[in-house]
Amino acid sequence: KNEVEQSPQNLTAQEGEFITINCSYSVGISALHWLQQHPGGGIVSLFMLSSGKKKHGRLIATINIQEKHSSLHITASHPRDSAVYICAVGQGAQKLVFGQGTRLTINP
Amino acid sequence: SQTIHQWPATLVQPVGSPLSLECTVEGTSNPNLYWYRQAAGRGLQLLFYSVGIGQISSEVPQNLSASRPQDRQFILSSKKLLLSDSGFYLCAWTPGVWTETQYFGPGTRLLVL
Fold it and tell me: B29 touching A, CB under 8 A?
């Protein structure tokens, strides 16, 4: 079993829909990261959080430390949100463990 | 502002040939530097990290090696490439505390034939 599990693996939605991507982990962590990987391969860090909730524009990330679960939400989704979203957990010094990613496609 | 560069962007190499991928960071000092690999259809995997010049930690035993000859330069090497070395290689940096946001380079796509 992977230490970091994401669901769903693939998600297709219509423009404007509310999107939720889930991440569960089985190890103790100090921080959880959400990353966005565009079709060309480039990766952008969206959030780093260790408790509660963070919001940036239409993106919201939440984490429940007790349940070892995090969610990434996208409100009013747009085709430009189409990308692979990756959850990663910080585990010990200098190490991130990554989920497999969720491929999101938003159709116009 | 800080920027991170990787080259080459793409590379096609025969099995058994050597490899050298370079990563440089501008606009910061004493960064922590990381090499990741993303194999086809798989998640990112940490290969090496460095907290300073000449200090390299390996996460996964393999035929790859890393070096940090200068503060803002990180090099990934191999003496003899394997087919399984194909993948997307990403360099990243953090200001020095691992829990802070990681900034990724544009990546190098390597195909070993």
Answer: no
- Identity of the residue in B44, B99, B109 whose CB atom sits nearest the CB atom of A31: B99
pLDDT at B102: 84
- Contact yes or no for B103/B94 (Cβ under 8 A): yes
Contacts of B34 (CB under 8 A, 6+ apart): A94, B46, B48, B49, B50, B91, B92, B93, B94, B102
Q: In this model, does residue A93 exceed pLDDT 70?
A: no
- Of A52, A20, A47, the closest CA to residue A34 belongs to A47
Q: Which residue of chain A has the CA closest to B92?
A: A43
Across the interface, do B107 and A41 touch by the CB < 8 Å criterion? Answer: yes
- Confidence (pLDDT) at B41: 78
Distance of CA A101 to the CA centre of its chain: 8
